[in-house]
Amino acid sequence: MAWSPAPPVFADPKTDFVFKRIFGQEAHKHLLIELLNALLELDVSHRIVDITYLTPEQRVPVEELKLSILDVKCTDASGVQYVVEMQVLNVEGFEKRVVYNVSKAYVMQLRRGNDYPTLRHVVGVTICDFELWPNDNEGPSVPLLSRWHMREQHTNVEGLPQVQYVFLELPKYAAGEHPQSLLEKWAYFFREADNLDVIPPELAEAPFTEAMEIARVSRFSAGEWEAYDRELMAEQDARGALTLARRVGREEGKKDGLERGRKDGLQQGREQGRAEGRAEGIREAVRMLCEIVGTPLTDAQQHELSTLDEPTLRRRLNRLQATKQWDEGHDP
Fold this sequence. Notes:
Blueprint: H1 16-23, H2 29-40, E1 48-53, E2 72-76, E3 81-87, H3 94-107, E4 122-128, E5 145-148, E6 163-169, H4 182-192, H5 208-214, H6 222-293, H7 299-307, H8 310-323
Parallel strand pairs: 3-4, 4-6
Antiparallel strand pairs: 1-2, 2-3, 5-6
């Protein structure tokens, strides 16, 4: 009998099915509120008190971005709206998609008959399972949780706060198996839940215990497990397609580079050959002229003659014609 690996204890909360199972149901609305309050680091007076889920027909039907996991619209105590989405793959156009969704949420408020003064601020909250801004040593690093809004470029004065963005880049989590803050615990939950066999002490408190229990595979029906498994395969297919596209792109780029290099090399070789041919012709002219004027070159002069480039040879030939002397060791 063929060996097959045991199923995980907890499902991956980054997949569409599990994320919606935990955060996309009315009965679990409080879990999404807890998540957002932690990500947004809101004080008591601005904590989110309610959320409104987008219906499927309200979502932007972009096929290549279908692995954008969940869109929700939320309002806090002061009426600020939040557009939340999770993305597992860094695909072309993703940042534009984020800006589009947040901007759309802002302008669509007027469709309810409101006037401009009644428009509420909108904040886009995006959880990424990839580094959107990889850190390097050339400038300031973008942290695990980053916030983006408009500033005046000359004075750095903040302004136009109507549209803002918040990003949580899961690969930047660096607290290991011992997260401390609420933010770190949520990042740890998303990154490691499907690798755990038991609920660790760091997540053995609300709201994490409830989220872990909802993700427990033993609670899935046969149909739910099949749906989850299909999503995992679809995600692997999408990752494979991206990997293949990148590899093909690299190979095509390499071929183009080799072809350009070959052509450049041939052209350079031709130019070098022509230059060397001209130089050798000048050398022969020098030898013949020295014989004619009765001052044949010595061995040292012959060696020097063989090492000079074309411009220097031309100068020496001109001098030889004018003075009938080679003048060894220096140029005119």
